[in-house]
Amino acid sequence: MNDSPVDLGTIAGYLVLGLFLIFVFVAIVRAVRIVPQATALVIERLGRYSRTLEPGLHLLIPFVDRVRAGVDLREQVVSFPPQPVITSDNLVVSIDTVIYFQVIDPKSAVYEIANYLLGIEQITVTTLRNVIGSMDLEQTLTSRDQINGQLRGVLDEATGRWGIRVNRVELKSIDPPQSIQGSMEMQMRAERDRRAAILTAEGVKQSQILTAEGDKQGAILRAEGSAQAAILTAEGEARAILQVFDAVHRGDPDPKLLAYQYLQMLPKIANSQANKVWIIPSELTGALSQFTKGFAGAMEAPAEGAEPVRPPGWSPLAGELPPTALTDPAVALAEARRESQAATADATSAGTLSGFPFDPDAEAGQKP
């Protein structure tokens, strides 16, 4: 019975010691703070702002200092849900925005505003409605950079006192009404069809121009080739005529030789398939008489020691003609025409061998 009070005191002592150890452990835990990188802790002492803890190991006064809030110092990305906005031409568009911001003053972010994310969202919506309300739909769709710049300026100015810096503001999507989208698609399709038609017409035009130019150049080249060929052919024929004409004049043929050649050509004329009736020309009698005289003269033998009788106009031909000197074709043709006209005039004045006047324009086979 006397040992009971001692046992109770011992147990009470152990309980007090245990509670003290627990208090000491909790105090040590609350006194030691390790702040991670890119994080700041706002500390209050007895309910009043004391300091801001930066990354590292820190010691606090237990039950006197407490952590009010932890603030992330990294750049944050917040995407707000689409907001309906009315343009100046009374069209409702849905705009989805994305904001990039960073907390640069943890104390202001904690004590100047209760929820800075909600504040940024509401300022973004109101500013967006003010900016879009002064633009029509076409300007809204084509002025993203201008809208982003205005939003960033307003948000940076409003959130500066909250210890927040807005780095970028982007319009993720601008969705007009479905009816307007259909009209815009039809307009774009019509514009693209118009551009396609213009490009097709330009291509056809250029093709036709190039084809016409090619045909023109081809016709010019063909005409030039035909002209050169005709010139060369005429020059060749003129030179051949001049050479034959020169050889004939140098040989000085007599009437008997010409009559013989005339008689040789008569069968060829008669053999032509186009001839239905063969009429003997009036010159045939003169040719036959010249041919008979030639044979009669050839039958007379020359006296011994006398020179052989040669027909009038005889001249050596084989190996004795001087080399032919060709002149310009135009000059030679003009000279040949003059000689032909002179011969025609002489024949007209003298008459033919049959006694009928010579008519150069008479048709072939027509009697005088």
UniProtKB/TrEMBL annotation:
Could you tell me the superkingdom of the organism this chain comes from?
A: Bacteria
One GO cellular component from the entry? plasma membrane
Q: Name one Pfam family in it.
A: Band_7
Domain Band, first and last residues per copy:
30-188
The answer to whether the entry has keyword Mitochondrion is no
Q: Where is this region: Disordered?
A: 302-368
Q: Where in the cell is it found?
A: Membrane
Q: Where are the transmembrane segments?
A: 12-32
What is the topology of this protein in the membrane according to its UniProt annotation? Single-pass membrane protein
- Composition skew (Polar residues), residue ranges: 341-352
Record keywords: Protease included? no
The record's annotation in InterPro entries points to: Band7/mec-2_domain, Band_7, Band_7/SPFH_dom_sf, Band_7/stomatin-like_CS, Stomatin_HflK_fam
- What keywords is this UniProt entry annotated with? Membrane, Transmembrane, Transmembrane helix
Family, as annotated: Belongs to the band 7/mec-2 family.
Under the heading PANTHER family, the entry gives:
STOMATIN-LIKE PROTEIN 2, MITOCHONDRIAL (PTHR43327:SF10)
Protein name in UniProt: SPFH/Band 7/PHB domain protein
Q: State the organism of origin.
A: Pengzhenrongella frigida
